[in-house]
Amino acid sequence: ANLPYEVIIGARYCLCTALDEAAALTPWGSNSVWSGSGLLVTFHNETWGGEKFFQLLAKLSQSPREHINLLELINYCLLLGFEGRYRVMENGRSQLETMKQRLLQLIRSVR
């Protein structure tokens, strides 16, 4: 697929973040080198994925037609269990469910 570089980087960022969280939640991942040098560190040299993932979602949501592919990827990451910052926030899961519903409505309005 002939995708713009920005889309590829955005997709890689989301996937790295979601996979890092999934690994960190396993018995082997939480106490391994993965926790300090996961995919996000390797490919993007940062560790703020649990926060920035949702900043990216907010930015992309402003132009959903233009960013529908990344919005759908973000939706899949959330459906597969990614929670990011909401995992540790008080009432975070409830807030995340609301966000997921809004994202699904946004995607349906474009598709």
Automatic annotation (TrEMBL):
Signal peptide positions on this chain: none
InterPro entries: T4/T6SS_DotU, T4/T6SS_DotU_sf
Pfam families named in the record: DotU (PF09850)
Domain of life: Bacteria
Boundaries of every Type IV / VI secretion system DotU domain copy: 2-111
Protein name: Type VI secretion system protein TssL
